[in-house]
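Hello forum,

I keep getting stuck at the same step: I have a sequence, I want structure tokens, and every attempt I make locally crashes halfway through. Rather than fight my setup again tonight, could one of you with a working pipeline run this one for me? It's a single chain of 399 residues.
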Amino acid sequence: MAPESSLAELESVVANAVALISQLESTVAGLSSHQTANDAAGNSTEETGNSSAKDNSSKNNDSINVLSLAHDSATLIKAHSTKISLLIINEPFTPTAITKVIRELVGEPVPVLASAAQLCRPERYTKVIQQELAWRIARVLKELKELLSKIPKDGEALSDAKKNASVGAAAGKGSIAATAVLWSACDDIITFAKRGFAGNLIHNVEQLRETLKDVMEELKEWGEETGEEDEEDDEDNTETDGVDEVTQGLGSAQISTTQTTQDMLDDLMNSQRYIPRNDPDKIRERLESCLRRLRLTTLLYQATVKRRLKILPQQPPDVGSSTPSRLDEVMNLLKRIPDRFGSLALAFYELDTTEIDRLMDECFFDAFAVSELLNRRWDGEKDEFTDWAAKFQVEIKRA
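Reply #2:
Ran it on my machine without issues. Output:
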């Protein structure tokens, strides 16, 4: 049995650590829910120094690589959590060793990780990157508290039951499962940081494009369920190099995708209705138009990645650049479009022509707006994509 004094000290250190982490988690969670870093800093920023001191501080902060800071802090937290996990399950139980590791945790990596979320200013990194990083950091803090709650107070190492309980167990997950979940959260930050500024935007757009392709495939299959004459598919050439190659076939009525599965759309199709053979409401005509616009829109996502996001630097632009706000506007539209096409698919399944027409217009306007926002490079100059965007706008109007 460990000495009572060391147990009391450990209990106090754990309580203080949990209180600090809870406070930091609350602040960071605010950033992940559309609150800006400057808002979160709030009164403390206003109460410190004069305006010139604030300006100097801001310039110093802008020189920090926030993603590297998050990467290194998450790596340290993962290492320290491993030590704690081992110390609480092995005999002899050593409260002093655990106390030392916890003090190291709250002394540097935990507050530094939280500060990374605050330093990830939307006017440099975009709101998209700030919110995604803050969400990941808040998750690490939450799971770290969970692991600290597993530290025994009786001076004995955890029993097999308390260390081996799986996630979802009635009495809560054991320390090993808690450690694994924390590791996963840390790894998520490390992966996010390694992708870099441009890499994370590219990753998001590529995932959204896959969702669009899933919607297109589901709608295409739904249209074929009517027993109407099947159309022969063209080969999918959407992965070809060069804007000119991507532009070829923009006006084609033939739709082709790679077979994928999407649970959400599968659920929607469970109670679907099919196009009547006589088709008095011209559902098929609308479906063909929708599929053409879907194909065009997936091409827009591909061209956006290749001609706009891949030319971004890995490091965010300096404060004062218009690029972050422009990126946020584009990303908001790119995120909204798959949701709207998903709703449009549901309207087709319900044969609701009024809703189909309304949502088709909304999808068209959003895709058109993206092409307009991106028709020039980040420095305002024209390039190959400028010409491609003009062709895209003509074709999606015609679709």
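The radius of gyration is 26 Å. If your local run keeps crashing, start a new thread with the error log.
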